Amino acid sequence: MATEPTYFPRLAAERPDIALCRASTAVARAAEAHASAQGLGVGQHLVLKMLAEVGACSQQTLAAELRIDRSVMVTVCDHLESSGYVRRERNPSDRRSYAVTLTPAGSDRLRGAEAAIPAFLDNAFAALSPAERLQLTTLLGRLLAP
């Protein structure tokens, strides 16, 4: 028998940590499904986006800035490199690390993926007004600040 949820809304009001975890999981699943339909994982998309905006950097920097586990970042970069979207070269200032660079093919792939983001965001956050989305973004930024 399907009924309207009564307990979880009360729990979410009392425990914003639980509400945020559940909302994060739902949005993360939607983002992965969307990114997969675009031919990139979320992590891959974020790496391409960061490289386009800040230029070449190490895998360690990408992992730290994007908050992706370092071991996962290796796999992300392996896939992007095998697809021809990035190039890894020894970092001339630190031969122990690699500089990851966006390729022209990666720039093209990123442009295509970015074009689909506004519609995804509108769908994923349809329950919020534009002002509420801005407020949410601001509050999350404060929670995630170093």
TrEMBL record:
PROSITE patterns: HTH_MARR_2 (PS50995). One of its GO terms (molecular function) is DNA-binding transcription factor activity. Gene3D superfamilies: Winged helix-like DNA-binding domain superfamily/Winged helix DNA-binding domain. GO terms for biological process: response to stress. It comes from the Bacteria. Keywords: DNA-binding. Residues 13-145 form the HTH marR-type domain. PANTHER family: HTH-TYPE TRANSCRIPTIONAL REPRESSOR YETL (PTHR33164:SF43), TRANSCRIPTIONAL REGULATOR, MARR FAMILY (PTHR33164). This is DNA-binding MarR family transcriptional regulator. It comes from Nocardia alba. The lineage of its organism: Bacteria, Bacillati, Actinomycetota, Actinomycetes, Mycobacteriales.
